[in-house]
Amino acid sequence: MRITKIEVYKVDLPLEHPYWLSGGRLKFECLDATFVKLETDAGIIGWGEGTPWGHTYVPAHGPGIRAGIETMAPFILGLDPRKVLEVERAMDLALPGHLYAKSPVDMACWDIAGQAAGLTIADLMGGGSRTPKPIASSVGAKTVDETRAVIDRYRQRGYVAHSVKIGGDVERDIARVRDVENMRKPGEIILYDVNRGWTRQQALRVMHATEDLCVTFEQPTESLDDIAAIRPLHSAPVSVDESLVTLQDAARIARDGLAEVFGIKLNRVGGLTKAARMRDIALAHGIDIFVMATGGSVLADTEALHLAATIPDQNIRAVWACQDMITVDVANGRGPRNIDGHLHLPEEPGLGVHPDEDALGDPVAIYSL
Description:
By secondary structure, the chain is of the alpha/beta class. It is built from 13 helices and 13 strands.
């Protein structure tokens, strides 16, 4: 089997509500999504998606995905997509770095490999838990009252896991954490995501002021060096996502005891192939895992769900899905959807969902043998 054609599509995905990070420092209203269609000489088609959360959040750029695929296409065409490691190496040689540009190609290869084997991606990867996975909301409000309203809106949709965005103002962050903990319901999973919004002293002030609550903070400071510097000075559990980019990052976090939770963002780390190695490091060191699409449609959510299904139920905290935050549905209701705040693994071979090509419009680029 060989890859014979690569089609690339650009789609704007407007958010239902304006979204703020780091106490209003960053605002987002529309996502730039790239969909990739891989065709093979065996007649099997695979789909992938890469949707960064804007271009100011982390080093990822919607147009950069499409430029990266243009660079890599001559090295990908003609390869067997079922040999995901060979495709991975070809992309890494053709374009060092730029992991976010490689993620949609990797997803499409796994989609093809699963279809060829007659297995879901999760089963093909050796996992395949059918336990429904809780969806983590993303609460990007700015004030305490807005935070309450957004959490309530997600609760009405059945959500039991919430990623509450904080950062930017110490006193406001302390008040928000305490307020959310006062309204927390039994069994809810709550993560306080700072998105690198604190300096070292700000992080310590909030962590000390909320020490009695034993809450988990995600990415409290800019870098792993910052997290390491304040690590001996507080007792709060830490999750790392934005500083978890490479396998070397994962090894350092595990070795040096920098975090109790990995937040694996599939587009950020380069796709399923690279993310699976991070998963294994986490499990070997007793580190729990959140799995997240960086943003995007039900395709990106489904990819995250497949990786989550390869993680033992006791080690997976939740998956983050973006589909309830956007106003465009490129798959016409197909694929895993929110059922009582959870996603259920599809049983179709491969990814288990594909877009309606009419919803994508015309391809912006085509590469072929």
